[in-house]
Amino acid sequence: MIKNISEKTLQDLEFTTVLQHVAEFCITDLGKNKIKRTKPYTNNNALFKELNLVNEYLSSFESENRIPNHVLIISLKILIGLP
User: What is the rounded distance in angstroms from the CA atom of residue 36 to the CA atom of residue 42?
Assistant: First the structure.
């Protein structure tokens, strides 16, 4: 089980700086704000679910089997909590 990460550890990892860099790639303010509010996972199941999604995307990208845009839009809506 994942334990809460201390503020000191987050500072050492420059977590806020990483989020700011990621937010620069967002097109909308909604996306930027969502990224900046990101917190480390505290639940193993949620963490592994997201890692599997990243691995699935990476595998598709590396094999040049691009994911259709409509699938990405639906996935993004789910990630940011839109209907």
Answer: 17
